[in-house]
Amino acid sequence: MARIPTFFLLLLLLMPASATRASQTVRLALHWLPQAQFAGYYVALEKGFYREAGLELSILPGGPDSVPANRLSSGEVHFATMFLSHALERWGAGIPLVNVCQVFQHSSLMLVTRKSDNIRTIPELAGHRVAMWANEFQLQPWALFRQQGIEVPIVQSNGSVELFLNGAVSALLAMWYNEYHVILSSGYREDELQPFFFKDTDFDFPEDGIYCLADTARKNPQMLRALTAATLRGWQYTFEHEDEALDIIEEKMIQSNLPVSRVHQRWMLRVVKTVMSPKNGEPLIGQLRHHSYDAVAGTLRASGFIQDLPPYEDFVWRDNNAE
Predict the structure, then answer these.
(1) What DSSP element (H or E) covers 238?
(2) CATH of 109-200, one of 3.40.190.10, 1.10.3720.10, 3.40.50.720, 1.20.1250.20
(3) In this structure, are residues 199 and 275 in contact, taking their beta carbons and an 8 Å threshold?
(4) How deeply is 313 buried, as exposed, middle or buried, from its count of CB atoms within 10 A (0-12, 13-18, 19+)?
(5) Is beta strand 193-197 parallel, antiparallel or unpaired with respect to 130-133?
(6) CATH superfamily of the domain spanning 6-106+205-315
(7) Is pLDDT at 110 greater than 50 in this prediction?
(8) What average pLDDT does this structure show over 229-241?
(9) What are the boundaries of each domain within the chain?
(10) Residue 292 vs residues 5, 142, 205, 281: alpha-carbon distances, Å
(11) Cα–Cα distance for residue pair 31/207, rounded to 1 Å
């Protein structure tokens, strides 16, 4: 697990001794339904870390029809999770978002092919049918295809892996922590597949981060400080107590009437740990790297998704009390 910044570590050490009744009611919207992708938040809530930090926090699950940035702008929630690319796109649409804490340091997005199709490199995808979701997830693959100078026929996917399993497409856009494992669980061996990870390309876009409106960051930095410290504490506890964390997240899934697979959720949690961990020499967990911001912003601008972008210093919240 990546190290937590010194300032937040000090907060974590002090919290149990100074725990008081929660004084601020806070609502956090997640961008998808309960699953191990969000285990750290649910663990922090269940273990009382947010309350110890002075927050009476409620977690509102997301889903296919939930737009986190809109929930922020409407005042429904104080904080929301979303991908960096989506947050910047929403900023360009007029929602003044601020990155509070960058939880995922890398991309879990990938393209999956079968070795039997003899597609061993990205350029060899040229002319082959690729199934992709019809939303902002297409940004990275289109940027990659443009960089490689190839054209691929796109088949719209609803998130199912059936097009790939049935042989209707040669490649599938997938999440490492989700659809890739579904494919493996369907009978494929890893040595039968040729995955292409975006984390290994120039388009390693950080994904899950915590965001709020600029006005919230300006008026209540203590709330941001408390939320960040308690959340990172939740993730640290999650990885140190994997089975307890899985028990907590599976209970949340059952409450939401979602199917539960312990094997799949364990896979997801372990992959999440990988994409949360910085590489050698990179900033610690919770921080959005300047060059990561520049890469995503540059690709958004070049692709025509957005024209105006905020300066890094305005978009990323900096705690003036941190070291």
Answers:
(1) helix 221-240
(2) 3.40.190.10
(3) yes
(4) exposed
(5) unpaired
(6) Periplasmic binding protein-like II (3.40.190.10)
(7) yes
(8) 97
(9) 6-106+205-315, 109-200
(10) 19, 18, 7, 14
(11) 11
Tokens of 204: 């390693």
72-86 burial, b for 16+ CB within 10 Å, e for fewer?
bbeeebbbbbbbbbb
Strand pairing category for 171-175 and 109-114: antiparallel
Kindly report which listed range (73-87, 93-107, 278-292) carries the lowest average pLDDT score: 278-292
Cα–Cα distance measured from residue 227 to residue 41, given in angstroms and rounded to the nearest whole number: 10
| pLDDT tens track for 134-184 | 777 888 999 999 999 999 999 999 889 999 999 999 999 999 999 999 999
Task: Determine the Cα–Cα distance for residues 24 and 3; give it in Å rounded to an integer.
Answer: 28
Please work out, in degrees rounded to the nearest 5, the angle formed at the alpha carbon of residue 133 by the alpha carbons of 129 and 137: 110
Q: Name the pTM for this structure.
A: 0.91
Fold agreement (6-106+205-315, 109-200): yes
What is the structure's pLDDT at 282? Answer: 66
Whole-number pLDDT of residue 11: 47
Q: What is the per-residue pLDDT across 222-231, written as a single tens digit (0 to 9) for each?
A: 999 999 999 9
In this model, does residue 251 exceed pLDDT 70? yes
Q: What is the dihedral of CA 260, 266, 268, 274, to 10 degrees?
A: 170
Q: Is 128 exposed, middle or buried (0-12, 13-18, 19+ CB in 10 A)?
A: middle
The tokens of 323 are what? 């070291």
CB atoms within 10 A of CB 306: 17
Give the integer Cα–Cα distance in Å for 247 and 240.
Answer: 14
pLDDT of residue 296: 93
Mean pLDDT of 206-211: 97
User: Does residue 103 carry a pLDDT above 50?
Assistant: yes
